[in-house]
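Consortium newsletter contribution from the modelling node. Members have asked for a concrete example of what our holo predictions look like. Here is one, prepared for the magnesium ion complex that several groups have been discussing at recent meetings.
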Amino acid sequence: KEALLQVKQLSVEFPTRHGTLKALNEVSFDIAPGEILGVVGESGAGKSLTGAALIGLLEPPGRVSGGEIWFEGRRIDNLGAAEMRALRGKKIGAIFQDPLTSLNPLFTVGQQLIETIQAHLPLNASQARARAIDLLAQTGIPAPEARIDQYPHQFSGGMRQRVVIALALAAEPKLIVADEPTTALDVSIQAQIIQLLKRVCREHGAAVMLVTHDMGVIAETCDRVAVMYAGRMVEIGPVQQVIHCPAHPYTIGLMGSIPAMDEDRERLLQIDGAMPRLNAMPQGCAFHPRCTQALARCREAVPALREVSGTQAACWLHQAEAQ
Ligand code: SF4
Ligand code: MG
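And here is the predicted structure:
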């Protein structure tokens, strides 16, 4: 299948007074039409930056310093601001942690939905309203005919995120970038919202890049998973393969965070230490100070992603023959 999105060797840097910090290093991956790709890793690993770079919303002074992003066969990393905004409105949707960042408090939910729908589909006012009500119903909002005329503050946090999902789908995007979409919500409704996101995106045929620090969410939702560490992608593969047979020592450590899935995993070592800061990146594999299996060459050279029985991992353990 032709890729919907291709990210090739993407790098992002932040100029600072003390020099340039590389926040993302040569990250490559693709997403197929309708596929759900999870991106997991600790806070600061580069997950949100990758998502922000894709949709042209990197916070200045951060900037793409290398690589290419292709969407539907067209290069998009070099588009101007207006073109990128148009693409974001129509083909690529975004869902952020806090639903209030996506909703305008001054307009009713219906006004916002109808505006988005009419910007993308040739529908008159009553047709667009019917479609908006339908979207609210699909996202599990009770009594959508009444709720459509309410303002965002009249919805609970969970209901608001359902509205945001409806709004993201209103333009029938091909890709939705969802960055920690349930982190700000009550724990009791997080799973519901994730299942909803998965179901409606499947129904609408939208691919999803789901950024989360929660391996449990990945396991339940995604087709493939990409693991990030210190600004690099260290493993990527089909979700079952990565969960049951992770190749990278960092991924193996991460699996300790989903003990309920497999009793054996509970006995795996938790990872000691912390991820290095951008201004103090160790040489070689950035994981080596925390890795119990580090080899001499791990301190010298950065391993590239290579095929390892069913997944791809960036680890010298699996590249003995390359030396
Ligand atoms: Fe550990 Fe070396 Fe693999 Fe890095 S490359 S994860 S330090 S074994
Ligand atoms: Mg983040």
